[in-house]
Amino acid sequence: MTPTLVRHRPRTASPTPAEACARARDWAEIQERMLVPLYEAVYSRLEVGSRTRLLGLGCGSGLALLIAASRGASVTGVDTDRERLALAKERMAPDDGPRAGAPDVDLVDGEVRDAAGAAGSPYNMITAFQPIGCVAGDTEGLGPALEEAVELGERGSAVVLTGWGPPERCATAGVLRVAERMRGSGWRPARRDDLEDVASKAGLKPDGSGRVACPFGYADLDSAVRGLLSTGLFSAAVRATDLAQVRKEMAETLHPYVRGDGTVWMPNVFRYLIARTP
């Protein structure tokens, strides 16, 4: 793989606390892999390969980008989370130096508009793999970034939106309700048309959808708590109470999913929508 370029955007924000770094690593090492079936299903359906110029919104620690790059795609990831992005840089770094014919990888530290020109020509695929539809306001929050991304794509480019499936098919929904009980998160059940509503507001035309089983499996209860905390879905609850209390209530809610060998297993279904740029 070619050397990874991280282009930094000036910031005035205060330094991120040490616990944010730990949670970013928990995301990369524990939680992110749970969504691999979703990434693979989308890439297979859209036949991602050497002709793909992909822009990943909220790319995080880069596993979805790495999978696309392994298929031959040229990939650009953009995120404002420096801790996760630093881990993506580590993940993308080649072990044995540049290799001829390796796919291009570009990581952009900043906003979507900062990714303009990174691919050398307009993108023909845009992904938003961070699932929406379980926190009040998350669908609206995606809108501005999506509108900027559409401006960077070719006409007719595929835009992939992802979301949580119905609560009755997502065992994790019960754990997410912990944050609601602690009056910190604004959690809500996923709605059937969440993805279509976001696409419509961005002027996109739906072109297919699907559901993918993404079970969450953990080595033990502590790993499950750490992995779920790393999603950021419990951050408001932590601010409203304290971390120890949130961890305690999460662990109690997870107990029904602990198997005889101590592992934790929660079946989930996620949904994706493929739309097209005008």
Short description:
Keywords: Methyltransferase, Transferase. With 278 residues, the chain is an alpha/beta fold. The protein contains 10 helices and 10 strands.
Walk me through what this model shows.
The chain has one domain (about 5-170, about 190-215, about 270-275): Vaccinia Virus protein VP39 (Rossmann fold). It is about 35% helix and about 25% strand. It has helices at about 20-30, 35-45, 65-70, 80-90, 140-150, 175-180, 195-200, 220-230, 235-240, 245-255; strands spanning about 5-10, 55, 75-80, 105-110, 125-130, 155-165, 205-215, 215-220, 265, 270-275. Strands 1-4-3-2-5-6-10-7 form an eight-stranded mixed β-sheet, sandwiched between helices. Strands 8-9 form a two-stranded antiparallel sheet. α4 (about 80-90) links the parallel β3 and β4 (about 105-110). α1 packs across α8 (about 220-230), α2 runs parallel beside α3 and α5 packs across α7 (about 195-200). It is globular. Residues about 5-15 have low confidence and may be disordered. Keywords: Methyltransferase, Transferase. This is Methyltransferase domain-containing protein.
On the 0 to 100 scale, the average pLDDT is 87
Shape summary: globular
The structural domain count equals 1
Helix content, binned percent: 25-40%
Q: Point out poorly predicted stretches.
A: 7-16
Query: What is the count of β-strands?
Result: 10
* CATH classification class: Alpha Beta
What is the correct CATH architecture? Answer: 3-Layer(aba) Sandwich
How would you spell out the order of helices and strands?
EHHEHEHEEHEHHEEHHHEE
CATH superfamily: Vaccinia Virus protein VP39
Largest sheet: 8 strands, mixed
| CATH structural fold name | Rossmann fold
In angstroms, what is the radius of gyration? Answer: 18 Å
End-to-end Cα distance: 33 Å
Question: Biggest sheet: strands side by side, in what order?
Answer: 1-4-3-2-5-6-10-7
Strand content: 15-25%
Structural class comes to alpha/beta
Quickly count the helices: 10
